Amino acid sequence: MDTLKGIFVDPFADMIAAPDFLLQVLWEGLVGGVLYALIALGFVLIFKSSRIFNFAQGIMVVFAALTLVGLHEKGVPALLALPLTLGVMFMLAVAIERAVLRPLVNQPDIILFMATIGITLFLIGLGEIIFGGENKVMITEQLGIPTGSFTLEPFGGFVSIEQKDLTAVIGAVLLVGVLLLFLNKSKIGRAIRALGDDHQAALSVGISLSTIWVIVWFIAGVIALATGIVWGARAGVSFALEVIAYKALPVLMLGGLESVMGAIIGGLAIGILEKLFEIYWGQPLLGGNTEMWFAYVLALIVLLFRPQGLFGERIIERV
Q1: pLDDT (tens digit, 9 = 90+) per residue, 182-194?
Q2: Which of 16, 57, 220, 224 sees the fewest Cβ atoms within 10 Å?
Q3: CA-CA distance, 82 to 84, in Å (whole number)?
């Protein structure tokens, strides 16, 4: 009886009793969800255009952040290091297309997936050679990102909001907005969507596969840099950041591997729900640390009833 009360009564009673604390939890979940959605977008864009599941997206986050910090350590001003890092990510996109993807055109999907694992290992080694393996501090203040906090007093309570988290949310919203406009309104964006909808038809009307691959991998690099700056400001810059990309996997399973909107909504949903579950159910009933596995369990439940994810397209094959 006490267990049922702890599951179905106490959490909701706590939410009603302390609405200001509930808002704090929702805010923390929203910030985490925005960052999950950013990482998932990198996976979705590459998969839509090339049918490749990019295992290297996590290390791209690390490599972009390390490049930015490394350039600043060499004396490059932060506001100049930022476009230079974007240039590095563009050159990386060109190198991946020329050296890895182009020779593997028309190869089975598993070969392309293994190739992204090879890219991951290469970037880990290259990053350690160039930047070393020690932890670094993100140049948050030098980039003009505020590091203070301010408080709100809703319902007569107390909610603390870190300015860097608010900046991250606003920046992510703007980035996603620009990306959606690019995909829906620009000629290149429509080409990317066409390539994702029907590979052969897109190629037959003259869409350049190599050009689209470079552009998409560069966009994934831009997303990786934005994610690296935000996560680096929260947890420092190190190769451990790579594991953050694994949190995108349940987001992709929940939202659908080919859906940009699914990545956004799935990321927000998982960020908020895992934080709520951790605070109101995980800590009182399970001792905490449920954020490590909650997203995967939620995604598994969704897959049992909708294997293509909430926003993925149902695939029907006639045999």
Answers
A1: 888 888 888 877 7
A2: 16
A3: 5
